[in-house]
Amino acid sequence: MVRVTAPNPVIPVPPADLPRTLGELRAAGHRYRTVKQELRDNLIARMRTGADRFPGIVGYEDTVLPEVERALLAGHDLVLLGERGQGKTRLIRSLAALLDEWTPVIAGSVLNEHPMHPLTPASRAQVAEAGDDLPVGWLHRSMRYGEKLATPDTSVGDLIGDVDPIRIAEGRTLGDPETIHFGLVPRTNRGIFAVNELPDLAERIQVALLNVLEERDIQVRGYQLRLPLDLLLVASANPDDYTNRGRIITPLKDRFGAEIRTHYPVDLELELALIRQEADLVAEVPEHVLEVLARFARAVRESPSVDPRSGVSARFAIAAAETVAAAALRRASLLAPGAVAGSDDEATRPEAPVARIGDAVSVTSTLRGKVEFESGEEGREIEVLAHLLRTATAETFRARLAGLDLSGFTDLVAEGTVIETGELVGSAHLLRQVGTVPGLAKVLDRLGMGDAPIPAEAAAGVEFVLEGLHLTRRLGKDVTESGRTVYGGRG
Q: Where is the signal peptide (predicted)?
């Protein structure tokens, strides 16, 4: 059996022209700054140049980000409060990009001590002895971010530190500071430390953070040791009224300089932008299908059948988009068992995987676990989601195709003709049933497919029109025992 291990992260190599001793560092004019001063200066520099301050953060430009910027400029530790899937962790991690790319440290220091500002007795003695010849190492900003997911089994030792029994066994006395094994917080000294889901941290463990936030130091068991830590502490939490697992104790809340509320995308365009940015799509998903999924996510979020305290994560719409893309890829693969990639022969050319509106039906069952329903809806979860999906489809149909003459489609079935589609109906078969339809070119143009869509894109447009006409009561629809969908007249 081969043992699989996670790949080691690539640690950037410092440029060769950086100072290597304390004397060289002083000669280069380096100035010591605290982490919060560093973040403030770099944030102001980006503001003045117009550079992107928080890459990859969508929908917070006018609401959350200005509050985060004010907190950083004020030098405040902060807690982000919001429902699940609102990008709290991503926002916290993006703060590390505001640190200097490289910062000097005393070579070998576990606390990332600055050569001009040593903390521990051992480091102060080392600086006094070596003077300007003190070796200087360089730490990349990616190594200055620490994070801990709060869990009930987290200990003070994990966060702050504890006595190292191995060092005691080596002959050191209990009063020797060198016997301390420092925890995650002091090891992130001169960086940013994040605690995710802070209320899940036991209250007695939260007490250990009080000194870190106010006095900026740590206490380890009975040691008379004061280490003035230099860091920005950031936390995330769900609203107090949602979780019964715990709470942020009042003294700790009071020590955070800023409490910032996050939110879901405020409008449809931002929801769409988030899906486009985050979804890893294995097939083409047309814009009108993405819009249906964005409207669907917003409808679920606002539904009285869904517990509003739990929220509906942005991951819901992202997973939905990835699911319909996977459905399109599955169809294309199953319909072309003898296909040859790159073939010029239409009979052996594989069908391009393009998602259709019918592919969205599967998300009602695969994603129901992402939604917490009100207790009265037990057993009706899929029914509720299916209704909301139909509503989102109808709204998108009206928004995209309002004012177009679609009589060419209704005339197709006026005399008893039916059009069959479904999960495993190929694009060519669907288009042959429809033939040349007056108004199809305008429909495809409205749906953003251009003047020369490929057959799979045209089939996606046709299926969307058929489903929209059914939802607006202009076409009938039946689902056969084999799972195929048949559109026909309403008679």
A: none
